Amino acid sequence: MKERSAATLKRERIRFTTLEEFAQYLENIGDGELDFRAIPIFGRPEEFHYSGHEKVVVRNRDQKLFDNVEDFLCYAFQCDGEGYSHTEYVDIEV
Which residue ranges make up each domain of the chain? Predict the structure, then answer.
């Protein structure tokens, strides 16, 4: 279930507990765009850009383009080779 809280600098923080929740959130953007910061349980926060028109996610630091949204979601949820998540949740700031 998504939890929302006020974040510093007036950014909204949203918690996704499943890949499906995060995928649905991105799908609901339609053809829009979203700049966001993903904050994993372990590891460092990273900045990303999502293009709803092209259905792609780009990591801002090095302009890495994920092959598809599913690959990005597995990256964010630290999935293993079979696609099973190894984290309880991912927070994003928008």
Answer: 4-93
DSSP state, residue 4: E
79 by Cβ neighbours in 10 Å (0-12 / 13-18 / 19+) ranks as middle
What distance in Å separates the CA atoms of residue 39 and residue 83, rounded to the nearest whole number?
Answer: 20
Query: Is residue 66 within 8 Å of 75, Cβ to Cβ?
Result: yes
Tokens of 85: 């998540």
Torsion of CA 88, 91, 37, 25, to 10 degrees: 100
Residue linked to tokens 């998504």: 2
Q: What number of other Cβ atoms are within 10 A of residue 59's Cβ? A: 16
Question: Could you report the per-residue pLDDT of 75-90, keeping only the tens digit for each?
Answer: 999 999 888 888 899 9
Say what the pLDDT of residue 9 is: 59
- Sorted by sequence, the CB contacts under 8 Å of residue 9 that are 6+ apart come out as none
The pTM for the full model equals: 0.84
